[in-house]
Structure formats: C-alpha cells, structure tokens
Design goal:
The protein is of the alpha/beta class. The chain is built from ten helices and seven strands. The C terminus is likely disordered. Bound molecules: zinc ion.
C-alpha cells in the first residue's frame, strides 16, 4: 500500500500530510498554525551520556504525529522533505548542504527500508547528508518491548562506516527513550567523534510511550 500511495503522490495534487487538505508544501496552512504550540521550548535537549546529546523540534503529538505516521506508515514520502526543512528551521541549524559539520542519519533496518520503500530519517535529513552509519543487526522489534527492553534493545545495533568526523549531527524521526539515539551516537563516538548531536523531528511525551502500541516510533 505504501508504494501505491507513493506513486499516487506523483500524480495527484499534493495534499497536507496531517489532514489531506490541498497544499503545495508538507503541511497545509491550518496544520502549520498548530506547529508553534508543539515546538519544544528547550529544543528537546537531553544529555544522553558518553558525549552524545539530543535535540528535538516538536512534541510527538497532534499534526506532527499525524504527519510522521503518514510518512512512515502511509507512504507519504513526499512530505518528508518539507518536514525535514521544518526540523532544521525549528532547531535553528543549517541543513546538511550548508552545515559546517557532516550530517548523517540513523539507518533503518533492511526490513523496514523494504517495507516503507524509503529510509525516512535520510529523507528528513535532506540533500547533502552523508552515510556514516550502518546497521550491524536488526535488533528486537521495538514496538513489542517495554521501556526497559527498548533501552537495552538498540545497543550495538550500529557501526560507523570508517573513521567518524570529530563533530557530527545525526538525524532520526522520533525520539522516545533515547536508546536508539544513544546507540547511534555511541557508534560514532567509538569511531573517533568527539561530539555527537542527534536531532529528531519529534520527541514522544511520556504518556505516548506507554500507549504508543502499534503506531509507536522506532524509539
Ligand atoms: Zn493540514
């Protein structure tokens, strides 16, 4: 179904990822109006330890949650670019093509890539991002684990592709426990990076983690 919708996206007039109203961008004007209220006041900053820090643009709620689910589960791949531009804008960071540091993304598992037809974090990062990480194992199914299991889950799931740059920014779609962000960052730290900043479009609030169920982000 994802691929069919992605193909239809090429033929149909573009619509809002969150509500399906006609619009030229990723979100219609009405949904975009809700964004300031979802912006995280402290940029979702979190020190994940081991020289890995995290930042996030929006709360994983409302139109942001709808748009993320549309991209990840309903094949609205065309919205990923505009959502990625919102991420850079909201965090006040230059996009990869203009950034003075390398920008990479959290690689999806092969199964996820095949199922979705795209690598969503890579699309969010946008042009100019470079592949610095690879999945060395798939890891357990994040949606079926409790918080403790998820925290342990992604550890060791990533490896750097060679020597890492000293400072690097990593893009992912949603942060929940921070375990995936930490695991991805740690892989770059172990390959020589001194500082790693993992940025996500959204950060899931605590209640959503418990009730996330099947629509849960990867972690
Ligand atoms: Zn809308």
């Amino acid at each position: 179904m994802g691929l069919a919708r992605a193909v239809l996206d090429l033929l149909l007039p573009p619509t809002c990822a969150a509500c399906d109203a006609a619009t030229a961008g990723g979100l219609c004007a009405g949904c975009a109006e809700a964004l300031p209220d979802l912006a995280l006041p402290d940029h979702g900053f979190a020190d994940l330890g081991d020289g890995v820090t995290a930042a996030g643009a929006y709360a994983y709620d409302g139109v942001v949650r709808e748009a993320v689910l549309a991209v990840k589960l309903r094949g609205r791949h065309g919205a990923a670019g505009p959502l990625g531009r919102l991420l850079w804008f909201e965090l006040g960071l230059p996009p990869p093509a203009r950034a003075p540091w390398p920008v990479t993304w959290v690689p999806s598992t092969r199964a996820t890539r095949r199922r979705r037809g795209v690598e969503v974090p890579r699309r969010l990062a946008g042009p100019g991002a470079v592949a610095l990480l690879e999945r060395v194992r798939a890891g357990p199914d994040q949606t079926s684990l409790d918080a403790v299991g998820r925290r342990a889950g992604p550890r060791g799931a990533f490896a750097a592709r060679g020597q890492a740059p000293r400072r690097v920014v990593v893009v992912d779609d949603v942060r929940t426990t921070g375990a995936t962000a930490h695991a991805a960052g740690l892989a770059l730290r172990e390959a020589g990076a001194e500082r790693v900043l993992v940025v996500t479009l959204a950060v899931a609030p605590a209640p959503a983690r418990a009730a996330a169920g099947l629509s849960a982000p990867s972690s």
